[in-house]
Amino acid sequence: MNTKAKIQDPRSKIDKLLWTLIIVLLCAALGVDYYFSQIAWSLRLAGWIVLACILIFIISQTKQGKQVWQFAKEARIEMRKVVWPTRQITIRITALVICLVVITALVIWGIDSILLWAIGWLTGQGG
Asked: Which of the two ends of the chain, N or C, has the fewest CB atoms closer than 10 A to its terminal CB?
């Protein structure tokens, strides 16, 4: 008999409770927002901002929230390692891309014009 399968992590019970609380708070907030729809939108928006802060705090206490926070911290560390191009290189590459787009557009326009002329000549409608 596997005893590990029967023993449940107490943290998972707390996480389930927290996620249930989050859903209940969101549903209650939607109901309150609908009920007080005649109140100025700025006050309701302030309430949503306060609720968002509370929900973010609650989510940060769950296992998934902690994993997201850890991922964000690691991503920030990796972003610091990135070597960003200088302004001069960025301008040169941007100009090169613009030139290549214009050249490609002209080539496609030329091919389209030739094909349009050829189809018109073959069908006897012009050209």
From this structure: N
